């Protein structure tokens, strides 16, 4: 399998190059040259074999990784080592929820939850990033060179990225996180309490969207990127998209082992990586009726589907679901590429306009939007609605959602109320304990003694030593942060 850019650059990439670069050389997103097809009969065979999560990863990844680049035996061994720190043997357990009492049946509905949060940092990002950490180690040994990994995070990606890289030889990681209390305390501490010498946490006076600008600024210098082995493991990285394909297939095979009907997925959405991965699974042959990308008050994505206009807001609203506090759902570039009939010229025009124009916006034609709306039915929720959703799910189902997953639950509930009869799977993207202050505040209004159990990954984290650089926001903050990041990468690379 080869890979290409959404913006039409002529360079064709191998899988190894796609993973190590993150972004395409022309600034676009990396996509596969062709989308493989999985027949319904193959799905039934996988269901009959009752494949484990790592086994299903192997079957799907082999469609994108040529044997010449990575022998199947090496891929299998790598996948067998990826999930050692996950606390559930299933890796992604599927829980069926129904109202606890018959008298409450009218208040709720039956659905399934795909728990994606059993990794070392309690977020779905662990699935892709544990794989990337092991893959990078494999490629570093193969290439005999160092890597400088830069990441912008809205909360969960940073800690998962740090955890997959910490302590590894010939890799340094630099994580830009929103400072000034813009993310949950435990999210921040999951990053700043990691003291390994190859880990650099940097709190910027800005949002994750601002941090993305600085990261893209580094990638705008291809000579620097090549010299210092710079790569990113944000969701633009193809390996993360590829891993996210698997949990859709896995959930489907558990919920519909006969493979005889379509289902609906409701997904908390920020950068839209999960949402785009879902699109690819449908193109590959997974029987999905549609996807529900569910957003918070930062609703650029919802407005895109509702009004056919991509118009990021000027201000990122701080919410109780901080990992979704994103105004630029950058993976939508990949979706636009396919919805436009792989028209790279149009994609380059649209994205360049958004990147270079203050308050830029793009209006899309009805033909493209009709395709988008056939695939997605977006939803949004206010912070008060999210709190009500957390309380409702605990009362009716005896199940506690994190503030991100609660938004996807509310969207699924709305679909059911509007008459949806297909099975619905809610993607649970983070453990509620990561947002203990919000969850306990909500549930203690009903039960003053309620206390959320602390998972071992978070035990004692408030008492641990922290280390974090603090970057202020000068008038020319984007250029300054990019230069400072390049300086830090250079110094760390040269010092070993």
TrEMBL record:
A Pfam family that the UniProt record links to this protein: Thr_synth_N
Residue numbers carrying N6-(pyridoxal phosphate)lysine: 125
GO biological process assignments: 2-oxobutyrate biosynthetic process; serine family amino acid catabolic process
KW Nucleotide-binding (keyword) present: no
Gene3D superfamilies in the cross-refs: 3.40.50.1100, Threonine synthase, N-terminal domain
Domain Threonine synthase N-terminal span(s) in chain numbering: 2-83
Similarity comment: Belongs to the threonine synthase family.
Protein name: Threonine synthase
């Amino acid at each position: 399998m080869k890979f290409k850019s959404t913006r039409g650059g002529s360079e064709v990439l191998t899988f190894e190059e796609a993973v190590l670069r993150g972004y395409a050389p022309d600034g676009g997103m990396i996509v596969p040259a062709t989308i493989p097809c999985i027949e319904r009969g193959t799905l039934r065979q996988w269901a009959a074999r009752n494949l484990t999560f790592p086994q299903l990863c192997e079957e799907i990844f082999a469609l994108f990784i040529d044997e010449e680049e990575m022998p199947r035996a090496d891929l299998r061994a790598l996948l067998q080592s990826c999930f050692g720190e996950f606390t559930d043997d299933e890796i992604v357990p599927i829980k069926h929820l129904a109202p606890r009492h018959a008298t409450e049946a009218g208040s709720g509905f039956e659905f399934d939850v795909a728990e994606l949060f059993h990794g070392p940092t309690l977020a779905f990002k662990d699935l892709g990033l544990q794989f990337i950490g092991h893959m990078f180690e494999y490629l570093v040994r193969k290439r005999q060179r160092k890597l400088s990994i830069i990441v912008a995070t809205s909360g969960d990606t940073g800690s998962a990225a740090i955890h997959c890289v910490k302590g590894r030889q010939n890799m340094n990681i630099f994580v830009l996180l929103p400072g000034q209390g813009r993310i949950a305390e435990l999210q921040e501490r999951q990053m700043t309490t990691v003291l390994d010498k190859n880990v650099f946490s940097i709190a910027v006076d800005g949002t994750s969207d601002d941090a993305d600008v600085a990261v893209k600024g580094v990638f705008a210098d291809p000579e620097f990127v090549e010299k210092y082995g710079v790569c990113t493991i944000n969701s633009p990285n193809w390996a993360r998209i590829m891993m996210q394909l698997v949990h859709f297939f896995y959930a489907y095979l558990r919920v519909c082992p006969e493979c005889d009907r379509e289902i609906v997925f409701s997904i908390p959405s920020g950068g839209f990586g999960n949402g785009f991965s879902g699109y690819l699974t449908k193109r590959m042959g997974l029987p999905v009726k549609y996807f529900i990308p569910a957003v918070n008050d930062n609703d650029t994505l919802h407005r895109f589907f509702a009004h056919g206009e991509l118009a990021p807001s000027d201000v990122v609203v701080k919410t109780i679901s901080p990992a979704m506090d994103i105004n630029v759902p950058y993976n939508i570039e990949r979706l636009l590429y396919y919805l436009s009939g792989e028209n790279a010229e149009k994609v380059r025009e649209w994205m360049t306009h958004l990147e270079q124009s203050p308050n830029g916006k793009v209006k899309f034609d009805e033909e493209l939007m009709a395709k988008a709306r056939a695939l997605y039915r977006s939803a949004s929720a206010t912070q008060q609605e999210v709190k009500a959703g957390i309380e409702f799910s605990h009362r009716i189902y005896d199940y506690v959602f994190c503030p991100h997953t609660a938004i996807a639950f509310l969207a699924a509930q709305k679909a059911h109320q509007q008459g949806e009869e297909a099975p619905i799977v809610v993607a649970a993207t983070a453990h509620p304990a990561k947002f203990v202050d919000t969850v306990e505040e909500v549930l203690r209004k009903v039960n003053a003694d309620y206390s959320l159990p602390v998972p071992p990954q978070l035990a004692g984290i408030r008492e641990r030593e922290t280390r974090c650089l603090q970057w202020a926001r000068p008038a020319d903050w984007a250029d300054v942060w990019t230069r400072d990041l390049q300086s830090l990468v250079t110094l760390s690379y040269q010092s070993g």
